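Please, does this match?
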Amino acid sequence: MKNKKAVVLLSGGLDSTTVMAIARANGYEIYGLSFRYGQRHAMELEAARRVARAFNAIEHMIMDVDLAKIGGSALTGDNQVPKNRDEGEMKKEIPVTYVPARNTIFLAHALAWAEVLGASEIFLGVNAIDYSGYPDCRPQYIAAFEQMANLATKAGVEGKTRVKIRTPLIHMTKADIIRKGIELGVDYGMTHSCYDPSPEGMPCGRCDSCLLREKGFREAGITDPVTLVR
């Protein structure tokens, strides 16, 4: 198919960047969608801009959705971001960095844009292997949202466009994700993963996201081009 269009949810992190590379390698025209949602690590949006440019996105939209007004997360409030946790602790319970209904809110916006664009694919970098226990990263959730999406849109009901939620990383380890990205020529130096960066934008090296990233590069046998501080 020519001119295949895909909306790619893009945080500027390692996973969403790899997903954009996969979509690009599969011949999709890329429409990147990022959110300024009151996150403490809003500098990730600069990384998202770099990534969208690197993959020649047709358009990169940054939407404002102030989830800080709702609260309930260390990423949008004053609660401390957990540090120095091992994998067992990460998976023991849903952490305070969970943002209530975030992926549902993001996917709803992506669905609306995809319908307007006539795009049948939405790409999302969720992962159910090396992750921090978020409920909206599970295969069951993605399947349920896709079913709902095709009941909720004019294009779906009329049979014009059946939306697919593509999650190519969902059963991959972080190391496998990094290897795939390197294979596709991803420069991970342009990405940002840290939940609690310094005012200068340096990653803390101790939050769940930094630790999972470090583990992934170590197991992949590849040096992370982003310098971590401790």
Remarks:
- The chain has a mean pLDDT of 92.
- Residues 4-220 form a domain with the Rossmann fold fold (CATH 3.40.50.620).
- The first helix runs from residue 14 to 25.
- The chain has one domain: 4-220.
